[in-house]
Structure formats: C-alpha cells, structure tokens
Amino acid sequence: MALLEDPSGRHWGYELSKRSTVRSGVLYPMLTRMLDEGWVEDGWEDPTTIREKRPPRRYYQLTDKGRLALGGVLQEARREARFTDLHWRFA
Amino acid sequence: MAELIATVTSWPSLLGVLVVFGFAPGFCLRLIVFAYPRGDPRRAELIAELYAVPRIQRPLWVAEQLEVALFEGLVMRARTWNVSRRRWPAAVRGAGRTLSLVITVVLAVGGVGGSVLVIVRLGSFEHVLVLLGAFGGGLAAALVLGAVNLLKDRFRSS
Per the CB < 8 Å rule, is B67 touching A25? Predict the structure, then answer.
C-alpha cells in the first residue's frame, strides 16, 4: 500500500517502513522477494545530488509488472471484510 | 534532586549518551552488515539508511538490523558458500567430506561412550546425570544421522 501511494516514485527502505508501519525485519526480506519477482527495481541515489555528508541511498521503484500485481492484490483486499476499516489513500 | 541532576549531567553520563546514540549504532551496524555476502547491495544500503533514521531511534533500529542480518544475510552467505563450494576441485571436496565424516564419527562415539561412562561409573541416576545422558544420546543420534547422510552422499557421488 505504501508503494502504491506513489506508484511511479522512488521509495527508500526506512521511509517505506515508517509509512507502512512494517518493521524493517519484515520489510527488507519482503523487498528482496519483490525484487526477485520483478515487482520492484532498485537503484542508487546520484551522489552529486546529496547535500548532506552521507553515502548514497538505495531506492526501490515499482515496475509495470509490480503495479499490476499489487493492484490485483489490492482489488482482492478491498473485497475482504477484514480490511474494511483501512483508509485507502490511493485510486 | 541535586544528586540526580549531578548524575545526569556527569561526564560518564555524557560519555554514555555519546556512545549509545553517536558511536555505537554506526559501529555495530558496520559489524552487522558483515553477515551479508561480500558485494551484496544491502551492506551499503543499511549503512546509508542509518543516516535517515533519527538519532534517538538509531540504537533500536540497529538492533532490528541484527535480526534481519542473522536471518537474511547468513542464509545468503550459506547459499553463496554452497555455490562456491561446488566449484572446488573434486579432490578438495572429497577431502572435506572425509574430514567431516571422521569428525562426525569421533563425536558420535565420544557422545555415546561419554554418556554411558558417566551413568555407569557414577552408578546413580540423579537428574543431572539423566539429563547429561539424554543430551549425549540426542547429540549422538543427531551425529549418527549426519554420518549416515554423509555416507549416502559419498556412495551416490562415487
């Protein structure tokens, strides 16, 4: 869901874990599986754009395959009575 | 109250805060990422992500990474080790298997023999001895199973 809030944007590990309230112990293995499945692709921040004194961060971006797959998962979730209390913040 | 303030503002407390929130998270994380195989992007990723984590949350976040590294990194490491091991020459692989077989058999014999000796020599079945015997027996059984698997592997490959 956190990935679909901005489907074409770049997402960072820590930021994703905060937004989705998923612990990083769960999130990183999940991201690895999504990378293996081809749902997301990764890349590295351009070092020339970093103003602070820190190394470049790795970002994750949804692929077309991932958007379709996650969209399907969400469609199913919407039909489930268990998830009716969730606030859907995206189309 | 004055004592409490003096304790909180003392040099050791300041040093403690500097270590826990300043030095230790980065240092520990750099050690933790060694669990991932060499060249794995997660190594650099986690170190870079540390700078995005608020300083106050860093000790806990690093502790979480230890959990991830143990379950994800070590598995990856074992996988890469297994792959690279397959690339070793047959003679080295054979010698390695023989050595592990010898160690397994020696440990199994030692485990069973030691357990029997402890129970027979002391002649009593107090809780500790029974536990020791059970532990030794379990260990021996596990090792015997390991040896059987190794032998099977050996026969299959020959």
Answer: yes
